[in-house]
Automatic annotation (TrEMBL):
Family (UniProt): Belongs to the 3-hydroxybenzoate 6-hydroxylase family.
Taxonomic lineage from the root: Eukaryota, Viridiplantae, Streptophyta, Embryophyta, Tracheophyta
Alphabetized InterPro entries for the sequence: FAD-bd, FAD/NAD-bd_sf, MOase
GO molecular function: FAD binding; monooxygenase activity
Positions of the FAD-binding domain: 3-358
SUPFAM superfamilies linked: FAD/NAD(P)-binding domain
Name under which the protein is recorded: FAD-binding domain-containing protein
Organism of derivation: Corymbia citriodora subsp. variegata
Keywords: Monooxygenase, Oxidoreductase
Recorded coiled-coil stretches: none
Amino acid sequence: MEEVVIVGAGIAGLATAVALQKVGVRALVLERSKELRATGAALGLFANAWVALDALGVSDKLAALYAPFERGYITDVKTKSTREVHYSPSNRTGAQTRVVHRKVLLEVLAEELPPNSIRFSSKISSIETQVEDGSSICIVTLDDGTIIKSKAIIGCDGVHSIVARWLGLRPPVYSGRSAVRGLSVFPKGHGFDHGHAIQQFVDVGTRAGFIALNDKELYWFFGAACPPKGMEKGADPEVIQKEVMEIATKDFPPVYLDVVRHADLSTLTWAPLMFRYPWDILFGNLAKSNVTVAGDAMHPMTPDLGQGGCSALEDAVVLGRHLGDSISKHGKLETRDIGFAIESYAKERRLRAATLITASYLSGWVQQDGSSRLTRFLRDVFYGNLLTRAVRSIAQYDCGRLPSASSLPSRESEIST
């Protein structure tokens, strides 16, 4: 019997476990892999993510490792024209955008949890709910036959979420684009400004870029309207690197090719870019019977605004805040309180998630999918300013603060059914 079961030990799952711990609720995190996974190599964290990380108590640990980046350059590979984009600190918090190693973020979050909070090699075979003594109980059955009961289940199990499917949410759809991501290592130093600028290259059907993580490592990505040849048959790192370079050699500058050439093959990943229709978020079941979802399990989106990981961190804090407020109000965490808190969380996140999905998709469409005269005009004349404003507006979001467990009622009688 557990208080809360979280499915998935990715960004959303670990951050949610930390948020619940902050308000005094223990969670068991079930991860199907044998260890923490870090697919994607790195990710950008905008000001809204740093607000969430501050609420989780880990922002200082990460900020000390990574320099903020202040500007970006978007180059049209056909015309060679370049637009400069500035990433100014948040007007509200002063937080700055940084790119961090995904694995380091996961490790920092995991270190905040008590021992044995994460159970690896735990694959779910079924979910059900039932009423015991007038209270709703959630039951998870694992492939090895283990049965775990809890007062709530939070699905943080990614794009193809089992929990989202149980809730009745329709599967995500393919955006028509795919992405390759990786780290490149320069043992003697890459010579780029450490953390001060992100370089992007855009053409109809393709988008690529890179940014320094430190003096020797660069994070890079390559997005295309159709997957490189051979990707459907597997994701051999050497094939991925070769295909990216063959596509990029046509128009991309030599500097980008050199970055791909230095790729650490063990970090290379290829994946189709999926998203959930925003109306499924607005009108679908995000919560039912003390079960809900967070992160990609709720709102998979294309990466064009860099908000996937940021919004997952927001989810964690918002859910923790609602559960913490429930404890503060009622003096203890009862099953009925959990249901109310989860419903409130889902209500608060609907519009935000739908907005991010829509803005990200449209951003990607204007950047690389549209080839009409209108989209070319938008891309060439207005897009730099529109992107800057959109990112700045989205990053101003404040997910709130978590009530301190020390300010909540005594834990001795708090957990009750």
